[in-house]
From TrEMBL:
The modification N6-(pyridoxal phosphate)lysine is found at residue 284. The record marks 74 as: May act as a substrate filter by repelling compounds with a negatively charged alpha-carboxylate. GO terms for molecular function: O-phosphoseryl-tRNA(Sec) selenium transferase activity; tRNA binding. Converts O-phosphoseryl-tRNA(Sec) to selenocysteinyl-tRNA(Sec) required for selenoprotein biosynthesis. It is found in: Cytoplasm. One of its GO terms (cellular component) is cytoplasm. It comes from Takifugu flavidus (sansaifugu). The keyword rRNA-binding does not apply. Belongs to the SepSecS family. Homotetramer formed by a catalytic dimer and a non-catalytic dimer serving as a binding platform that orients tRNASec for catalysis. Each tetramer binds the CCA ends of two tRNAs which point to the active sites of the catalytic dimer. The lineage of its organism: Eukaryota, Metazoa, Chordata, Craniata, Vertebrata. This is O-phosphoseryl-tRNA(Sec) selenium transferase. It catalyses: O-phospho-L-seryl-tRNA(Sec) + selenophosphate + H2O = L-selenocysteinyl-tRNA(Sec) + 2 phosphate. Its cofactor is pyridoxal 5'-phosphate. InterPro entries: PyrdxlP-dep_Trfase, PyrdxlP-dep_Trfase_major, Sec-tRNA_Se_transferase, SepSecS/SepCysS.
Length: 491
């Protein structure tokens, strides 16, 4: 209610009570005013009542919620199900216009304000996560792969002669298919084995740029977040190389926002060389449903160019989800989650190392990977790939999600390209292994239960059994971290 309505209310209820209610309302409004003034993630998280009040006030600014609205167009924000309307807080019009995902909608001032504030808050979070000099970003309602495709298609207009994308190998289908979908030819650069780690072959990248000719290369497509023993690309050196040859540089930072090491690499790469854009997933970094990503960069003009490349309007759901999440957590809450993730990484590494040793295996030494770990499986490999496949199946049926068992010699064709040693990021990695990751939201219970069940499965396989029946029921605790279930590859 506004001041006039509060005054009128004093005729109905005691003035002292109304003033108390007005002061309570004002405390909510002060938080909202600060958000509008600063466009930054609040330091302390908001209560659900403040968030719902804010979203309700945004919604009444959209034409579909006007009391006297009379729509005669083809897109009037009509929703048949009241359940769907409530699910979206009656913010039905989406974001953007047909020519620009960042444009203001005349019919939807509230949704447009939501879009602008979300991008501003997310930009602030990218800065506090380590990329201090990022200039611009926007939330796009597509996952990481399609968002990378959008970046490549935007570069096509700047480099019409380019046919190739130089890509240090990372065995993840969506980032490879992103290049194919955009109509370019990926040039796969094999990684160098340094100890246990697979690292960027800078010499091979530079040789390929010289061989193909810089003008024929759309960009270098590098990666920060990845499964061990692959580690983040040497971004500083790649960025320097891209600046030297005037070749654009797009970074796949899928789940790197949660890892300060990945964000530092991006910041340093932009400082010493060239990074045109970096793309990160919403669900992997902010614990929201799958379906959104952030495209960010250091040149505001180029990021705006990418947003204008998106055809048509877009769903507001990813923007709404991440804004609600960040307002609820606040900057302090998000930083706490990042700190806890680091602690859990150390715990997981310690527990996995002890478990590996007890089974005659070892934790692979991959200090440059801040999220993912790998444990050798040489003993199982001695019994053949069947035992490795069985371990993957046993873990899956025992509700250990996200663990990946990677055998030797797996082959897979992706969009016409044959990958040998698929999932291991190498044609011939020296040993089979199991992956586990410490991602944002992981708990001590996750670590303890996964280690316990992995130990039981390994002991059973040594005895020739199947590990017994899977645990009854499911966890009673809430699930905080997004986990990805991957079946063992066919061989």
């Amino acid at each position: 209610m506004n001041g006039e309505n509060f005054s009128l209310s004093e005729k109905v209820v005691s003035a002292s009570y109304i003033r108390q209610g007005s002061q309570a309302r004002r405390s909510h409004e002060q938080l909202i005013r600060r958000l509008l003034e600063q466009g930054k993630c609040p330091e302390e998280g908001w209560s659900e009542s403040t968030i719902e009040l804010f979203l309700s006030e945004l919604a009444v600014m959209d034409s579909n919620n006007f009391l006297g609205n009379c729509g005669v167009g083809e897109r009037e924000g009509r929703v048949a199900s009241s359940l769907v309307a409530r699910r979206h807080y009656r913010l039905i019009h989406g974001i953007g216009r047909s020519g620009d995902i960042a444009a203001i909608q005349p019919k939807a001032a509230g949704s447009s304000l939501l879009n602008k504030l979300t991008n501003s808050v997310v930009l602030d979070v990218l800065k506090l996560s380590g990329v201090r000099s990022v200039a611009s970003c926007f939330v796009v309602p597509m996952a990481t792969g399609m968002s990378l495709t959008l970046c490549f298609l935007t570069l096509r207009h700047r480099r019409p002669k380019a046919r190739y994308i130089v890509w240090p190998r990372i065995d993840q289908k969506s980032c490879f298919k992103a290049m194919i979908t955009a109509g370019f030819e990926p040039v796969v650069i094999q990684n160098l084995l340094e100890g246990d780690e697979l690292r960027t072959d800078l010499g091979a990248v530079e040789q390929k740029i010289q061989e193909l000719g810089p003008e024929n290369i759309l960009c270098v497509h590098s990666t920060t977040s990845c499964f061990a023993p692959r580690v983040p690309d040497r971004l500083e050196e790649l960025a320097t190389m891209c600046a030297k040859y005037d070749v654009p540089h797009i970074v796949n930072n899928a789940y790197g926002v949660q890892a300060s090491k990945c964000m530092h690499l991006i910041q340093q790469g932009a400082r010493v060389g060239r990074i045109d854009a970096f793309v990160q997933s919403l669900d992997k970094n902010f614990m929201v449903p799958v379906g959104g990503a952030i495209i960010a960069g250091f040149d505001e003009t180029f990021i705006q160019e990418i947003s204008r490349m998106y055809p048509g309007r877009a769903s507001a759901s990813p923007s709404l989800d991440v804004l609600i999440t960040l307002l609820a957590l606040g900057a302090s809450g998000y930083k706490k989650l990042l700190s806890e993730r680091k602690d859990m990484y150390s715990l997981l590494a310690q527990e996995l190392k002890a478990l590996a040793s007890s089974h005659g295996e070892r934790l692979l030494h991959t200090p440059h990977n801040p999220v993912s770990l790998a444990m050798s499986l040489d003993a199982l490999q001695a019994r053949g790939n069947t035992a490795l496949t069985q371990l993957g199946s046993m873990l899956f049926t025992r509700q250990v999600s996200g663990a990946r068992v990677v055998p030797l010699g797996a082959e897979q064709t992706v969009s016409g390209h044959l990958f040998r040693g698929f999932m291991s990021h190498s044609d011939s990695y020296p040993c089979p292994y199991l992956n586990a990751a410490s991602a944002i939201g992981i708990t001590r219970e996750d670590v303890a239960l996964s280690i316990k069940r992995l130990d039981k499965c390994l002991r059973s396989l040594k005895k020739g059994g199947d590990g017994g029946p899977p645990p009854r029921g499911s966890h009673s605790r809430r699930t905080t971290a997004r986990t990805e279930i991957k079946s063992p590859p066919s061989t």
